[in-house]
Amino acid sequence: MANINTKPSPSQPELTPQDLFNINERYETESNKRLRHDGNAQYIEPSTSATPSDPYTQFSKDPWVDPSKIEILQTKFPSKRTSVLIIGAGWGGLQNAIRILTISKIPATHIRIIDSAGSFGGTWYWNRYPGLMCDIESYMYLPYLEETGYIPRHKYSYGPEIRWYAESVAQKWGLTSSGVFQTTATKIVWDEGEKVWVVDLVQRETEMQIRASFVVLASGVLHRPKLPLIPGLLEFKGDMFHSSRWDYGITGGSEKDSSLHKLRDKRVAVIGTGATAVQAVPVLAKWCKHLYVIQRTPSAVDVRDQRETDIEWFRQHVASGPGWQRERIKNFHRHFALDETEKPGLNLVDDGWTHAPGLLGLTGNPNGPKAPDEIPAYRARLVELDTPRQHSIRARVDQQVHDPIIAEKLKPWYPTWCKRPAFHDYYLQTFNRSNVTLIDTDGKGVDKIKPEGLIIGDHTYDVDVIIFATGYQAPPSGSPAEKSNMTVIGVNGVSMSEEWALKGPTTLHGVLDAKFPNLFLSGPHQASTSGNYSFNLDELAKHTAYILAECKRRVKGTKFAVTPSMDAAEEWAMQVMMHSAPFGVVTGCTPGYFNLEGDIDKVSPERMMILARSGLWGWGIENWIDVLEKWREEGSMNGIVMR
C-alpha cells in the first residue's frame, strides 16, 4: 500500500506578486510558441474518410473484431423497427440502456445498441495498448459496483478488466442480444406523421433502413482517433498505426501480455506525450532497440500510486453501506472547491485529482465568477492556488530524471486546467534509459515524414515503426451529429449540424433538443461534466429515462413526440450562459484538446456567444444534478411538450 514515489517534493516558498507575474509570463510565452495558424485543422480524422479506398482508413480499421461472431442486420431487425435505438455501445450506451430498462420499463428485446466496434466497451474496446489503465479510481469509475457486487482488482483498473466488466454488465441486465455491432447509422430523419426516426444503417456492405420510436446518441468523446497532417505521412515505408488501433502483429505481445518481443531490433518513434504515451512509453522502452519520444508539449505527470485492492479493506472502508458509491463520488466532487473550508473533512479518494485545486478551471464551481469582468481576478486566484502543485510536479521531474537538460524539457509550464492531468509511477524514469531519446520540438511538432523516418528541425531520425499517440476529436467541436459521424434531420427538415453551428443547441438540461423530437443526448453540450466521466453519463441517462417513463405514463401507449418547448429551451440556454463564467479561464491556455488547439481564442464575439450557449454548466456537476433532481421532484415535467 505504500507510495512507491517516496521522495517528498520540496516545499515552495510563499509566492510573491513578482513570482506570480513571472509564472503568468512564462505560461503566456509557452502558449504563444505553440499556436498555429491551422489550429485544429492540423489534424485529420480517419474515421470520417469518404471511401474505403482512402489511404487514411488504415488507421481506423478494427483489429479486434471476429466477423464470424457478428449477427447480421436482418437477424437483429426482423421487422425493421425498434422502440429504442441507442447509437454507441460504450458506457454511455450501456448506462442509457440500463436506465431505460429499469426506469422506463422498456424491455431489452425492444432496445437495440449499435456500434461500429465488434462488441461493448466504447473507448475501452478500441484502446488496448500496453500499459493501458484508467486514471480515475476504479471504485468510482466502474458503474454499478454496488448493484453487481464486483470488486475491482486495482485502485486504477487496467483496460482488459474494464472491457470485461462492460461486457459483464451488458450480460447482467440482459442486453447482450441488444448489441448490433460493426454497424453505423449514416442518417436519421424525423417522420412527423408517424412520430418515428427513419434510420439508415450500414453493416459492412449491407444497408438497411429501419424505424425507431426513440433514438439515443451515446457515441462518446474518445472514440474517433485523429492524425496530424504531417507532410509525407503516407510515404513512410515502415510500419505505423494509431495507438487506439494497436497492432500487436507489429509489436508482438497482446493486450494481456506486454512482451513486445518483435520490437527488440526496431527503432520506434512515438508521436505525442499525452495520457496514452505516458502509459505506453514505459512498456515500449523495455522492448525497443531504441525509442524516440516526440514531444510538442510535456504532460504534467503526478504520482499515480497504483496498488492492488485489498478485499477486506474494500469491504470495510469502501463498500461500507448502501449508497456508498454515490457518496464516494460526491466526496470526490466536493474536493474541487475554491476554499479549503468548503471541502469535506474526510478525503475518501485521496489521490492526485483531489489535491489539484487548479482543476476548478475544468470542473467549474458555484463560487466562481458570475460575469465576464470577474474572470481575470478569478484566474489569478486559481493560478495562485494551482502554482504549488505545478511547482511540485516540476520538482518531481528533477528528482526522477538524471539529465538536467532532459528534465527541463519535461517540465510543464501551463496551469493544471489547460490539459487533462496525467499520473504515472514510472514514466519520468524511462528517460534515464540509454535506449530512450526525448525529442522535444519546442512546441513545433514533426516537420516532415520521409520514407525512412522523421525530419524535425535540422535533424533526421531513421525509424522502423511510427506510433501515433495523438488523441481524439476534441470535445468542443461539432454537434452530436458530427460526434456520431452522421446526418441528423429534425422537424421541418432542419439539419442538426447546420442549426447548432449557426445558432447553437436548444435543449432542456442537455438531454433533449426542441427541434429534434424523441432524440436523447448524452452531453456534454448544455449539461455538465466530471473528471469521472462515466458518472456524468449515468446522470444524463437517468434523466433521459425519467422523461421517457413520464411520457409513457401520461400518453399511455399512443405514439407521440416529446421535446422541450422553445421557451423552455431558450431559458435553459440562458441559464447555461449565465453559469458559464467559471470556464472562461480556458482562454489563453496552451493549445490542446480542450481549446481546439487554440482556435477557441480566435473566434469572433458572435461565435463566442454560440460557444457559451453550447457549453457546460459552470457551477459544477453536483450543482447541475441538484437542478435536475429538483425538476424531477417537482413532477410537472415543466418545459416538456408532448404531441
From TrEMBL:
Superkingdom, taxonomy of origin:
Eukaryota
Q: Which SUPFAM superfamilies match?
A: FAD/NAD(P)-binding domain (SSF51905)
Which residues belong to any copy of the FAD/NAD(P)-binding domain? 83-304
Could you give a GO molecular-function term held by this entry?
oxidoreductase activity
Transmembrane intervals: none
Copy the pathway line from the protein's UniProt record. Secondary metabolite biosynthesis; terpenoid biosynthesis
Query: What name does this protein carry?
Result: FAD/NAD(P)-binding domain-containing protein
The species this protein was found in: Penicillium malachiteum
